[in-house]
Design goal:
Two copies of one chain form a homodimer. By secondary structure, chain A is of the alpha/beta class. The first copy, chain A, has a single domain (11-205), classed as Maf protein, CATH 3.90.950.10. Chain A contains eight helices and seven strands; from the N terminus they run αβαβαββαββααβαα. Chain A has helices at residues 11-16, 27-35, 57-70, 103-113, 148-158, 172-177, 185-189, 193-205, and strands spanning 19-22, 41-42, 81-92, 95-97, 117-127, 132-143, 178-183. In chain A, strands 1, 2, 3, 4, 5, 6 and 7 form a seven-stranded mixed beta sheet that branches. In chain A, a hairpin with a 2-residue loop joins β3 (81-92) and β4. The first copy, chain A, is elongated, with a radius of gyration of 18 Å. Chain A starts with 10 loop residues before the first helix and ends with a helix. Chain A binds chain B through residues 3, 5-7, 9-12, 32, 35-37, 144, 147, 149-150, 152-153, 156-157, 169-172, 175-186, 193-194, 197, and chain B through 3, 5-7, 9-12, 32, 35-37, 144, 147, 149-150, 152-153, 156-157, 169-172, 175-186, 193-194, 197.
């Protein structure tokens, strides 16, 4: 729901002069971008999410967020368009956990996360006709020890196959299983809103 | 929405054998307790939320969460009843910020929070016929510098008069204004779900 501000000098109003496109199908990202006060169009781009070998996790998410906008031809869009892409992964030690393909892989990921701290990383790319920038956010997340019954219940009931690391922080397992987080909560949900705000600010100021 | 588990040995199912009562009118607390997987009845108790002088902030929230259950006569409820009460405050230095009474007070609180770190504290009391326990959770929250236009926009649009510290972390100001949190996110929303889970576990094991 869009709300109109009576304070005309706000950055919010400057950004609202742009036509926003979100290159993502994630319902969480849509919800969060709405919560930031924006109307936008959802325009998922279809790219093979492969990245060169040898990148660090931060480089991977930055690369993939850029890749998602790489197929856009700016000439086909209004001059005041702004495009947003995001890629989120879960990093445990040296390992990158992406979306699980099936129940076994989801359970395997969650068993690894149980009782340990991991890092959620999101790469963000914001692009207008005159500006393009990429950055990333990191949040540390600590799970308590979860029993196998709890993990099976979660995977069976919530089917977290569209979620990096096989969990949603805004679902049952996030409520009862996460000890603490350190950093941006909304990054763990899939869109680092505070970082996006700063990047949008830079895009409209340029 | 309640979902039935096929894994009968779970704590979730043990707690579901109780009749749960939430002594709160807060829609956020209702949403979070639902998200934990429970059906419950909302039964706000009406007590004057005064506390003795000289208590520390942690003692205040613990005291007030106990107070909210103090008026309940267990004999009027089924034997397998479990009652939950929670009280949340915002602590900035030595000062306790409760709910603002009007726009001026809300703006005053938010100006104080802008650019600084504060602590959100929730006291929780869980009570059954044979068990009663109180505990509390603390989360550190850091706001970026917010302009007066931003604060006015937020207060005018979201009217945060039912929220301790005059903000909702799940609203616009939380998305664009919070740098980081350290601890339980859901505590900042008004119910430390992970702590509540542990306290419910202790209540059903006794």
């Amino acid at each position: 729901m869009r709300r109109i501000s009576i304070f005309a000098s706000m950055l919010l109003d400057e950004i609202r002069r742009y036509k926003l496109y979100l290159a993502s199908q994630s319902p969480r990202r849509r919800e969060l971008l709405s919560g930031m006060g924006f109307d936008f169009e959802v325009m998922p781009t279809h790219v093979e999410e492969n990245h060169p070998a040898g990148l660090s996790p931060a480089e991977v998410v930055r690369y993939l967020s850029q890749l998602k906008l790489s197929v856009i031809d700016l000439n086909h869009f209004p001059e005041n368009s702004m495009f947003i892409a995001c890629d989120t992964i879960v990093v445990l030690g040296d390992e990158i956990l992406e979306k699980p393909h099936d129940e076994d892989e989801a359970l395997h990921m969650l068993r690894e996360l149980s009782g340990r701290e991991h890092t959620v990383m999101s790469g963000l790319t914001v692009m207008t006709r005159t500006h393009r920038a990429t950055d990333h956010a990191e949040t540390r997340v600590k799970f308590r020890n979860l029993s196998d019954d709890e993990l099976r219940h979660y995977v069976h009931t919530y089917k977290p196959y569209d979620k990096a690391g096989a969990y949603g922080v805004q679902e049952w397992i996030g409520y009862v299983g996460i000890e603490s987080i350190n950093g941006s909560f909304y990054n763990v949900m899939g869109l680092p809103t505070r970082l996006l705000w700063t990047m949008m600010e830079e895009a409209v100021k340029k």
